[in-house]
Amino acid sequence: MRIFKTIVIFLLTGIFAFGSSYISLGEKAKYPHLKHFDYVNPLAPKGGSIKNYSLGTFDSLNPFIIKGTPADGLELVYDTLLVQSLDEPYAEYALIADDIEVAKDNSFVIFHIDKRAKFSDGKSVEASDVKFSFDILMQQGSPVFKQYYADIKEAVVLDKNRIKFIFRTNKNRELPLILGQLQILPKHYYEKNPFGKNPLLLPVGSGPYKVKSFDVGKKIVYERDKNYWAKDLPSRVGQFNFDTSVYEYYKDDTVALRAFLSGAYDWRIETSAKVWARGYTGKALSSGEIKKISLRHYLPSGMQGFFFNTRRNIFKDIRVREALFYAFDFEWSNKNLFFSQYKRTSSYFNNSVFASFGVPKGRELDILKQYQKELKTSAPKIFSTPYVIPSTDGDKVVGENRRENLKYAQKLLEEAGWKVKNNRLINVKTGKPFVFTLLLDNLAFERLALAYAQNLKVLGIEMKIQRVDLSQYINRLRDFDYDMIVAVIGQSLFPGNEQRYFWGSQSAKTFGSKNYAGVSDPVVDDLIKLLIKAKDRSEQIELTRALDRVLLWGFYVIPHFYLPDFRIAYWNKIQMPSVSPKYGFSQYLWWDKNLQNQPKEP
Asked: Looking at the whole model, is its pTM more than 0.85?
């Protein structure tokens, strides 16, 4: 199968369909003859500067390795083989690759490199650069690459402009799509400058921006490459409109907010309900110089919550984890801390068709029955009882539901071998008290943590709260050196290979992975394998729901909440397109309002 110039791959949707410029499996592409995406302004003027903010620090310009903390914005330096549309669930269009051939039996894919593609130093992008990128990332990159591309056997250069990827299995239909996301590095540059040796080596890529200057830990400035090879490509029209993009670093969000209100930078995405409700004050707000908007999105919520580190003995017993789950009072927190802005998370895939609900039925039930023996031990209620998030009336003083939740939690703890003595929960066998530490790097979660700690205190549990700087926090996460953390695992519109990295047994043992909870369950591993090989969209949905349900009943996380909107505050120098994409967000779709009447750059 060959796809020319505009490349679109729809996966796992059913029956093949063809067009002169795209291929799909059951659905037609939104842009079979792409000129530009609907969510961009193709006439947006070029020029000006956008000032962004970041929290913490950075000490690396290499985002591909596990060592160091990379600067924000480095994705601007690198182009990928294909680029994803932000208003379709799983479509990719031509970027570095302008032609693709997928084997009829899905055993390989061949990408043809656009002969116009160039790195910022003027050298052409060739197939050898693609192979180099894949090989070096698999050998020396972050562990995520080995997990993500585990089903790729090898990359073979066919000629100067063609690269072939041979698959280990022909059942993983997602592989052409995820290979399209591969960022391409210049082989010639790293032959002279060993990859990973100098973390502050100025990067060379084929993307729309270059690093202009940086001050380690404080500031990095990107400048638009006016010779950017793809600036008129349909998948790039109307984007990357600012001449410079600046990221200024702040130690904490309180200082960063004050800086924004004084005009130090141009926009911010707000994650704090309290700040969104009360923090934006001053003349700039009342005069309309600063605007606040909420942009609705349709992305899966993913999972934010208190993640147990089940590698720790104190959290190995599932009854203990469930007990602590029942001690969290979302309703009180939402009402008193978050101005009732949030929805409670009840799935790893909320806000999507992949979220499990009720009791398993139909195909999902058939899938889970294959593991009936194992699940009777690990999750005995999974077949007969809906997974229900405990709720309260939000009243800590007279709340009846809260008392019942804590009673049930106490019952579970007693079954697990814990007893209260002198207001402290003690392990019957060891005589040790139930004490653990929640590790934080963000002041924003401290109020929530303190409220939760008070509930645990009623059960005789002491939860200490330790806040460390970002560098120390990242290092401890990489080493799994924590009892509990607040973490977020985002989910895509196309669950598949990345689930290995989040929940697979191998990633539980791989330092630097995102399996924060240490999930190591043969049932989960098997469901992930089946999900990756799902034969169609319907099977993908049912397998994801089954995976979701097994993870929920494992009580690896105490779910927090989610918001199906991006909350954005910005200075009115910024102009945005009239259409907002359904499945993403990018400030590089914007432009400088003051340049509105200037002619478009040739």
From this structure: yes
